[in-house]
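agent> fetching stored inputs for the Z5A docking request
agent> found them:
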Amino acid sequence: MVNRGAFIVIEGLDRSGKTTQVATLHTRLEAERIPVKLLKFPDRTTAIGSMIDSYLRSQSELDDRAIHLLFSANRWELATTIEQLLAQGTTVVCDRYAFSGVAFSTAKGLPLDWCRSPEVSLPGPDITLFLDIAPEKARERGGYGEERYEKEELQRKVRSIFSEIAAEFDQKAWVTIDAGRAREAVAEDIWNSVSPLVTGLTYPMQRLWGR
Ligand code: Z5A
Ligand code: MG
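agent> prediction call returned; pasting tokens
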């Protein structure tokens, strides 16, 4: 029987370097000959993803609950794929996941419990690496862009909700990394956290919030 792959999620605020670090981790895993698949949420390539893309670029308006459920559905449409990849021994590295879904919608004013409900039972990460950066430092990295949520006040709220979410996980499952440092230092911390997992796991895939 093959050991299953690890499910690694990289979360963080805008401009914290998630996409940069996911790419670096991918390169390193490939160099170590570990089968790996990268995923990114929102996945803007699907039909649901294109509605999300249009909303984020302010080309369409949606009720806050409707867009929340679309973000969640965008994960559910890939849930079976994630499960199959892990079962066949492929490590899955994911750029944002359900925690972004909960943090952003709660920051907009929806109740946290309501936001979490549609995410319950999604494939659960074996580890979540949270790239933490002060919003003012993130702004120095080229400033916030054109998209709907790229505003400093909202990002501050999102940061505080992420820390509420983190408090529910044990320290091995949720690792906060200071992302205000050089790319190489951040990448090294990420590697030190994930390398024990990527040689294959023998316990079953988790489900989000244990259900
Ligand atoms: N959202 C939601 O509401 N609900 C959900 O369920 C999900 C998402 C999944 C779009 O996400 C929006 O969707 C997002 C949350 C919401 N709104 N906001 N904000 P996205 O993932 O498509 O886009 P993004 O998060 O805005 O990511 P980003 O701008 O792509 O940031 P990043 O990936 O964390 O950073 P990066 O691209 O790797 O780096 C940014 C810049 O900094 C770039 O020029 C790098 O070269 C530079 N960089 C990276 N690392 C460093 C270091 N260490 N030092 C200096 N400079 C660096
Ligand atoms: Mg990104």
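agent> quick read of the result: Residues 12, 14-20, 41-42, 56, 71, 96, 100-101, 104, 141-142, 147, 149-150, 182-183, 186 surround Z5A (ligand 1) (CB under 6 Å).
agent> awaiting further instructions
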